[in-house]
Amino acid sequence: MVQESMTQVCSKQVWMPSEGENLATYYDKFATHYEEYVSARGMQSNRVVADMMHRYWPRSAAEPQHLMPAKVLDVGCGTGFVGKLLLTDELLWAGSDARDLSTFSGFDISKDMLKKASSVYQGPLLVHDVDKAPWPVTDHWADLSICNGVFIYLQNAEILEEFIRTTAPGGHCILMFRHDASAEWAAKREDIERSGRWRLVEKTPDADNFPVLTNSGLAPTMFNVFCYQV
């Protein structure tokens, strides 16, 4: 593949290794400054996913405002940036012990990203390529499964089947998809929904993930976040 210029890469907002460098090594180097880097570019999707996690967090049937302990699976978790936004929201957790009793776990292709995530997530963190099934997660483990900013790097839309396998019945999958993702992802999402294995409960409006870069003259990076109940 011919290596793209930096301008071409940045206009797509896909940070990829140079020719001859694999993705894991690239993100190992990126780990030390990833959060600062994407924040400086105005990343929006991490907050949108965190807010949706709050809306679909398991609650007591008798007291809908009462948060229950949950198992959270962050797929392609990187540094745990999304979870950090949720876990550090003191107003959300006020008067509840659910944060302390919940388990946040994840996996990622980058070992150094996971080292950063270990300061946020206390559950198991494993090195694994999201594109490769099966994931290192037991069946029906997660109450909430999340995936932000990952699908644009993947090749295998069939991997969505792993969300069905690893999410508990009644649990929710919160997934961010960019508009420039392959049409195969939308087709697979719809196929799973038609089969009755999950149902769409929320889709956010179109939004630009990196407005700071858009304001500087680059093309917008549009996305939606989908919530499916298994």
Describe the fold and architecture.
It is built from eleven helices and eight strands. It has helices at 6-12, 23-30, 34-40, 45-55, 81-87, 90-93, 98-101, 111-117, 161-166, 183-194, 211-215; strands at 71-75, 103-108, 125-127, 142-147, 167-178, 199-203, 207-208, 222-229. Helix 4 (45-55) packs across helix 5 (81-87). Mean pLDDT is 92; it is low at 1-11.
Characteristics:
disordered N terminus; 11 helices; alpha/beta; 230 residues; eight-stranded mixed beta sheet; 8 strands; globular
Question: How do the helices and strands line up, and which of them pair or pack?
Answer:
Layout: H1 6-12, H2 23-30, H3 34-40, H4 45-55, E1 71-75, H5 81-87, H6 90-93, H7 98-101, E2 103-108, H8 111-117, E3 125-127, E4 142-147, H9 161-166, E5 167-178, H10 183-194, E6 199-203, E7 207-208, H11 211-215, E8 222-229
Parallel strand pairs: 1-2, 1-4, 2-3, 4-5
Antiparallel strand pairs: 5-8, 6-8, 7-8
What about the largest sheet?
8 strands, mixed
Distance between the termini: 38 Å
Number of helices: 11
Subunit organisation of the chains: single chain
Please, what is the average pLDDT? 92
Summarize the amount of helix as a percent range: 25-40%
Uncertain residue segments: 1-11
Globally, the shape reads globular
How much beta, percentage-wise? 15-25%
Radius of gyration: 17 Å
What would you call the structural class?
A: alpha/beta
- Kindly state the number of beta strands: 8
List SSEs in N-to-C order. HHHHEHHHEHEEHEHEEHE
Short description:
The chain contains eleven helices and eight strands.
